Amino acid sequence: MPDAPVVLAATNIRKRFGKTPVLDDVSIEVRAGEVVALLGASGSGKTTLLRVAGGLERPDAGRVVLGTATVFDNSEGIDVPAEGRNLGFVFQSYALWPHMTVAANVGYGLRLRRIPEVERKARVDRTLDRLGLTGLGGRYPHELSGGQQQRVALARALVYEPPIILLDEPLSNLDANLRESARSWLRETISTLGLSAVFVTHDQVEALAIADRVVLLHGGRVEQAGTPTELYGAPRTLYGATFLGSASTIPVSVAGDRSAAQAQVSAGGTAFVASRRAEASLGNDATVVIRVECVRVLDGDATPPPGGTVLDLVVRTSLYLGERWEHAFTLGGATLRAWGGSPLVAGRTYRVWVPIDGAWAF
Prior knowledge:
By secondary structure, the protein is an alpha+beta fold.
């Protein structure tokens, strides 16, 4: 995929709403067959960036190229409207016409493009079949489940075979259980059909599960971009480390150097070793981010794994989460969380193993 041609490039995009900067010199690109997630908290600029790419929002500066065609360039005065960009859109609300049947909804864009009726029907039927909606063309949106409505919205975006589809929070209207199965279905559908796609989400699990590449936005800038494993396993900033996954944040002082990659840190007098990031320098305060799933509570005098620090910590409480227990330990003046298979006794001291490569000092 790195060698595949670029189908969408948005370069040096800037956008303000009044005096508020929403996008500040943001650049992204999407290659053929690639699925890119725009991930971030509310107000990070992800939806605005998607709308800029689709021609629904005019940026103040920058350039947007689809394939080899420039569709927006502020310096050249180029601004091709949304209907001229031949992109597929799936909106958060699905935006289905309630008075139209499924077939009419899916075929609406073809009718606007004056596709002959026979060909239009054939393409609609073929698209419904591909998305598991065979036989539902005569129904109305209110007669469908939420998952079926979501598929109809996707079918409408795919029916005229656009080079790329843009999806704005496509699964947010589904309940939790249906959303889990829809993640798998959406990823499989995009891969099977060989599509290129950009989708907006604030759900980190959704982004990691569906995307080939994730662009994490923060305050209108790209915080980090890379594969899901890169963003989750090798965050470059404190924000990236805390936004993705479940983690404890521990204020520390950097007490010593172990190596160029490791630092001896102290949290309220309790010392342990963490992986060093560029920001963590000797003698300064720092923040250590520790992934919850990496921490282990050791049974009795069990031998700890290599590559970590064993701490004697007091547990404050244990919470039952259904499939596991979550324990809260006191570390310095902060809380270190860990998962386990059974409850611990509040107020008792336990041996807790903290891995070096799962604790990042920023």
